[in-house]
Design a protein that fits this description.
- By secondary structure, this protein is mainly alpha-helical.
- It is built from four helices and four strands; from the N terminus they run ββααααββ.
- A two-stranded antiparallel sheet has the order 1-2. It has a two-stranded antiparallel sheet with strand order 3-4.
- A hairpin with a 4-residue loop joins strand 3 and strand 4.
- Helix 1 runs antiparallel to helix 2.
- The longest helix is centred in the N-terminal third of the chain and has 49 residues.
- The protein is elongated.
Length: 155
């Protein structure tokens, strides 16, 4: 019985005749399926990583521009160093959120005597008045409380 041979010259230059052309097509299809599957599985995670990195890079670029334009309270070298450190921390996931600042402020009230501690915690929560700025040397928080004079007239 004569063998059926097909020439795949239109696919591969200089192709020889093959006994089993279906094996060639199957291997090509399998390669394509693997490549497409890999792209579909990897692209969402890759895109998510790029989006996170992009947000970090955008923030860094904005901070860097502010440093170079002199729109910060620090000298330029310190500002650029801090922006770079913040970028690295953000990429590692080490930056904290606003609730950490609140907790830190409350912890600073802990060493005070109990009466002063209560007033400190009230100021941290936003009671009273606030003036100043970080750039100006600090934020001054004031809370005025009126206490009745002792009845025996001594203070």
């Amino acid at each position: 019985m004569p063998e059926n041979r097909i020439t795949l010259g239109f696919l591969i230059k200089g192709a020889k005749t093959m006994k089993h052309p279906n094996a060639y097509l199957q291997s090509c299809c399998a390669g394509i399926v693997i490549a497409v599957s890999t792209m579909l599985v990897c692209s969402p995670s890759f895109a998510a990583g790029k989006a996170k990195s992009s947000g970090t890079d955008d923030s860094y670029q904005q901070q860097r521009a502010d440093c170079l334009a002199g729109r910060t309270a620090e000298d330029q070298a310190t500002c650029l160093r801090e922006a770079g450190a913040a970028r690295q921390a953000a990429q590692k996931g080490d930056l904290s959120n606003g609730s950490d600042y609140q907790r830190n402020a409350m912890q600073r009230c802990q060493p005070l005597p109990p009466d002063d501690r209560a007033d400190c915690e009230r100021r941290v929560r936003g009671e009273g008045s606030t003036s100043g700025s970080v750039g100006g040397g600090g934020i001054y928080r004031e809370l005025r409380t009126t206490k009745p004079a002792p009845e025996d007239g001594k203070q």
